[in-house]
Amino acid sequence: MRIRVGYSAISRIVGVATTAWLCGIGSAWAGGGGNDTGGAQGILNGICPLVGASSCPQLPTVTQIILAISDFQNTPPDFVRGPLYFNLCSVPGNAGLNLPLCSEFNAVTTVNPRAPSAIALTDLPNLTPLAFQAVSGQAATPVALDSPLANSFVYPVLSGPDGRHTLNVVFDYIPWTSKSFVKGQAVGSFTFPLVMLNSDNSETPVTATLNLAATCNGAVSAPGCLAGTVTGIPGTGTNPPPSAAQLGIQFGFQLAASTNSSTPHAIITFQLPVIVTGPANPTKCGAAIGSGTADPADCGTDPAYFGVIPAGATLPNGNPNPNVGSPTFINQISGQATAFTKNDLGFTPNSLGLPIGVSPTPAPLCTSATCPAPPPATPPATFFGFCATIGGTPAVGTFVSWGTDATAYASSPVSAPLPQCP
């Protein structure tokens, strides 16, 4: 059953969120580099309690913070960062507004709503990719979607029913036009940020690298001529490394034309298991979420995705809401229905004994090695969560996340210092 939060409660929350934005935006967007978060993390920290988050993701780049705000507010990233909201500067695609370019925090971004089933080639015309220029020997460069330099595209889309969501990632790579494989050929290397779900509902982040290699000489369409193995996941063994299938990851390779090029080229698809967990014990969760000490065993890791009533919420008569910590299945800021009423529990490999999958957070999270350091310290290196090298050429580097309504977002900054691929 969906329990709607009253209009007055939503209005109160939106008002507080807007005030937080207006008070903090100057310092947050006045920093001096792609991984200088300025005060942006503080703004996110202020939004997290409004959506009932049990903890707030600490993120090393402004691009990731903007994605996290988009996730919690069901708001496109370009709107969060763009001039139409704050009238400060312009972003890609907003030419003609006669505003200075947001050069320090510029990014290319894509937004795709949830799909009912796995993405097929015929779905691509109805989706929006993120575009890159892929050049041998160089890092992939994000470019505008209509740029003549664009030759590599990625589509992230969440699909499937409630409780069984899958993250689809489609790589549309124009430079690959070869119709055949050579046995042993390295076809591609793909990096995904996964989490392992522990018995207490806490999560352990891992960086998984999936390598595709040809297992025979023959046409790229030949069945069984391509194998995928995964490294980087503790406890799964390395000799030999587990196959993609053993970790619940499905992939496909085809040579076909697309909306990006009429010449047949490589289109590589992945379906990744998803982990999103909500409150298991709303009473204990509600007692803890306001203190910042919420236990994942009570709250899960992603209570905001279930519309949990936040600490401090009141009833229409002004009295404290006794159901703090309970899921309403309504986003506490946007008022939109959440796409999550059941836990997504990923895939449990036999070799691991724990569920594994992608979380909705724009990973990787901030660590002591990647958190922005105060000036004059040299900013630490930061890393993209999703990367692809195809045919030996870096093809994609981006961050991916999704909102409480299962809309998938991806964004890549375009100004230095840029994150790296692992």
Outline, from the CA principal axes? globular
- Classify the secondary structure makeup into a structural class: alpha+beta
| Strand/helix succession | HHHHHEEEEEEEEEEEEEHHEEEEE
Look at the structure and give the mean pLDDT: 85
Helix content: 10-25%
- Strand content of the residues, in percent? 25-35%
SS summary, helix count: 7
C-alpha termini separation: 43 Å
Would you write up a description of this structure?
The chain has 422 residues and is of the alpha+beta class. It has one domain. It is 15% helix and 27% strand. The chain has seven helices and 18 strands. Strands 1, 7, 8, 10, 15, 16, 17 and 18 form an eight-stranded antiparallel sheet that branches. The chain has a six-stranded antiparallel sheet with strand order 3-2-4-5-12-11, with no helix packed on it. Helix 1 (7-28) packs antiparallel against helix 2 (40-47) and helix 2 (40-47) packs parallel to helix 3 (62-73). The longest helix has 22 residues, at 7-28. The chain starts with 6 loop residues before the first helix and ends in a 9-residue tail after the last strand.
